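We store sequence with structure; for instance:
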Amino acid sequence: MTDDIRDKPTKDLTTTDAKPIRERRISKRVAEVVRLIVVGECKTVKAAAERAGMNYTHVCETLKKPHVRVFIDRRVRETIANGTMRATARLIELMDSASDHVSLDAVKHELALNGHQPPSGPAANVNINVACGYVIDLRSDEEVAAQARVVDLTPISKPRKPSR
């Protein structure tokens, strides 16, 4: 039994363990600005920045950062998901509306969401007797000659009335 250093496994010095990516934090005030805009309490970034007590230019620069864009996208998806449930309930209410027009539109929308959509435009008319494009005559010369009509272009002479 020898205690030789070569018997022990060695760590490869050329590889390094990857550092875990640290998720960048978003301040509470920036999160509030995003919430105000996504929910619709504020219509503009400037109004949301003023309401959160932040500088407008700083908010604009912050909203362009990649980690903030990811945060915004996540909040938008959550808000839309919550709104989808409410929209479904409202659509079902509108299907039972007293107005036939509103009820018809709600039913059409529901059917379209489930893949049963009527054609959007008028149907194509096939036989409307309009010649478009080129006509390619595939008949043989014999068939063309058999159907050809000969027109005589010689003038018929009529006797002239004598002039007085």
The CA atoms of residues 97 and 103 lie 5 Å apart.
